[in-house]
Amino acid sequence: MGHAAIIAGQAFNGVSVASILLLTALGLALSFGVMNVINMAHGEMLMVGGYLAYVASRIAHGPMAFLLALLLSFLGATLLGALLELTVIQRLYGRPLDTLLATWGVSLILQQGARSLFGAIGVEVVAPRWLNGSFAVHSGAFAGLSLPYVRIFIVALTAVVLVSLMLFIARTRWGLYLRAVHQDREMAQALGVNTRWVDLAVFAVGTGVAGLAGAALALIAPVTPTVGQNYVVYAFLVVIVGGMGSLLGTALAALSIGLITAGAQMFTSVSLADVLLLVLVIVFIQFRPQGIVFKRSRVMKEA
Amino acid sequence: MRSLLNRYVKLAVLCLCGLGVCGASSAQNGTVKVGVLHSLSGTMAISEVTVKNATLLAIDQVNASGGVLGKKIVPVIEDGASDPAIFSQKAQKLIQQDRVVTVFGGWTSASRKAMLPVFERFHSLLWYPVQFEGNECSSNIMYSGAQPNQQILPALDWAFEKGKKRIFLLGSDYVFPRTANLILKKHIVQGGGTVVGEEYVPLGGTDFSSIITKIEIAKPDAVFSTLNGDSNVSFFKQLAAAGITQARMPVMSFSIAEQEAKSMGPSLVNGSFAAWNYFQSLNNPDNKKFIAAYKSKYGKDAVLDDPMVHGYVDVLIWAAAVKKAGSFDPNAVRKAATELGWTDSPMGQVKFADNQSLYQTAYVGQLQPDGQFKVLWQSKGALRPEPYDALAFPGKRCVVK
Questions:
Q1: Single pTM value for the model
Q2: Residues B133 and B275 both lie in one domain
Q3: Which residues of B touch A146 (CB under 8 A)?
Q4: Do A270 and B210 touch (CB under 8 A)?
Q5: Cα–Cα distance measured from residue A46 to residue A40, given in angstroms and rounded to the nearest whole number
Q6: In a designed cystine with B119, which of A13, A118, B47, B140 is the match (CB 3.0 to 4.6 A)?
Q7: Which residues, in sequence order, are bridge partners of residue B199?
Q8: Are residues B222 and B255 in the same domain?
Q9: Interface check B191 vs A, CB under 8 A
Q10: What's the confidence (pLDDT) of residue B17?
Q11: Is A260 a member of any domain?
Q12: Which pLDDT tens digit goes with each residue over A164-191?
């Protein structure tokens, strides 16, 4: 393996780590940006998505079964998110600390529920055959470079989700409502936007995307009751670095965090790379507390 | 509140009597209590419940053949809940409240280290069934699980015999992998091999992309893995996705036995290697009897593995030692246990050494598609247990009081 291949391979690893982070963080960024709600149970939405993909893979077989699993994870997590919004979060608007505690409780309930239903040890989703193998380069400057199809698939899936969300927000009427609520909730309300529905939709779609992240993650790692915990902390980091409520900022932050981690891991150990990452994030928010991309909003002014 | 509590206590006592746990009043002289302390809930339950089952099977068998010193053994089962602090509390409860004569249990080193002071303080005796990192020597613990020189070092001997001299060390970040690799590094260098990499991931870590790149750059002859639990699934999945086969780069695991292979799906780990002191596929009469007895009690789909056999053998040796000592006194029993001499067991001939660890044979096996191991290699006879590795911990010796 030449140097070029190693650098390209690690850059790709960084992008693939960033993809899962981004899918997890998108929902957090939306719900925090628009509703000012910190959802501690967000990681568990990823976990639920993973288990739904597992259930789907047990029911359906054949080459396209995994696409069904993705759909099921998305819909399942969306419904669960909607339920959570209607039963818990809606009743606690404007009480951020209570929301924090309540959603943390929900996350514990979901974890224990998964443990009782599926057992403490992880379950496995076998990647479909068309994702086996890898894209290998055999000659030239990048000889020895090999990119697993599963990871390419995850990166592509993330790109599709990100672009669709951006188009949805920029081009559709619902996206317009969302932007209006984000900029000035009271004014939007006064002009006839049903903010209840906007909040519900934003929250549910955000958890649905986290469900997708869980299904994608299931291709490369086991689904365990605590899998969400591993990712939600990094997702919060992404949201903070990216700037609340900006999809572009979130994407850039996920990408930088993925690349920094992948780069640092080559020169140090995994644990030390984590330390390095946290130090960099702390230094970054000292100089730019508003994050990479800052969008002015009423919520932010109050907060 | 108090009366409510009382009612619960009475209810609990009634329930326990129903299960046959008490009976102290009715047959005080006819029974003797032993503790069985494993995680029956939490992350470790998947592994420890089966050890508890094997321990109970051995107790049944001893009772069926007349008990010990004319007394029937009554197990008091407690749940350590995968939490070292709870292990310590329950150990104290078993000794003080239930007045058990000995305790069988523990799995993680953290749980053992939490229980150790309790057993020393009350001069009781713990039988510990799992392979561990050594570097510990208590008079109040019988260590039947492998010491490093009975599992990880024989695996290295095997690798060297096969000409695999460039070793990559990979582990979860806690005491067992760190100590095991400390010992391995000294022996790899002494044996003329090279450590081409050493990496740790946090417990439960799922991303191995960078580590796999490092493995590909280092080009080892073999990877020695002390990864624990679910990290194994991520590692093997991502290894396969990167196109690395067992034929090209064999992985020797120290935490994957038949149970783990079954729950991970044998196809994922097919062809990888493991070193243990017992495989279900061992061909000896004691093992055949043990497998048959276990399956008839717990179902024919049950698989057996190394820690389970140690849990089973511990009870049989304890019973034999009690008979030899003619008493249940922990001090007399542990002394008698080290003087019993060789006994046949499902894992071959074993005996307790004077340092209260077990002489046992090391085996290297390769996982087959059916989730069973094919035995490829075994050590020349049973190996003497060495709690302190001479290269890694020079000058330290294990002498029990």
A1: 0.84
A2: no
A3: 242-243
A4: yes
A5: 12
A6: B140
A7: B170
A8: yes
A9: no
A10: 44
A11: no
A12: 999 999 999 999 999 898 888 889 999 9
- The number of distinct structural domains making up chain A is 1
Tell me if A94 sits within 8 A of A205, measured CB to CB: no
Which residues form the domain of B104?
30-147+287-359
Please check whether residue B230 touches A, CB under 8 A. yes
Q: How many separate domains does chain B show? A: 2
How confident is the model over B55-100, as pLDDT tens digits? 999 999 999 999 999 999 999 999 998 899 999 999 999 999 999 9
Domain assignment present for B385 = no
Tokens of B388: 């302190």
B21 falls in which pLDDT band (50, 70, 90)?
A: very low
**Chain-chain contact of B46 with A148 (C-beta, under 8 angstroms):** no
| A141 vs B338, higher pLDDT | B338
Tell me, yes or no, if B243 comes closer than 8 A to chain A by beta carbon: yes
* Spatial distance between the Cα atoms of B56 and B75, rounded to a whole number of angstroms: 8
Q: Do A256 and A216 touch, CB atoms closer than 8 A?
A: no
- pLDDT in the model for residue B15: 47
Residue A163 belongs to some domain of the structure: yes
Contact check, Cβ <8 Å, A230/B237:
no
DSSP B368: -
Alpha helices in B35-122 (DSSP H): 45-64, 84-96, 109-121
Residues B238 and B162 in one domain: yes
Residue A161: alpha-carbon gap to chain centroid: 11
Residues on chain B touching A262 (C-beta within 8 angstroms): 209-210
Judge whether A65 lies within some domain: yes
- Give a yes or no: residue B400 inside a domain: no
CB contact under 8 A, A122 and B201: no
- Do A29 and A245 meet the contact criterion of CB atoms below 8 Å apart? yes
Angstrom distance (rounded) from CA A172 to CA A109: 36
**A282 half-sphere exposure, CB direction, 13 A CA radius:** 6
The residue count of chain A comes to 303
Whether A223 maps to a domain, the answer reads: yes
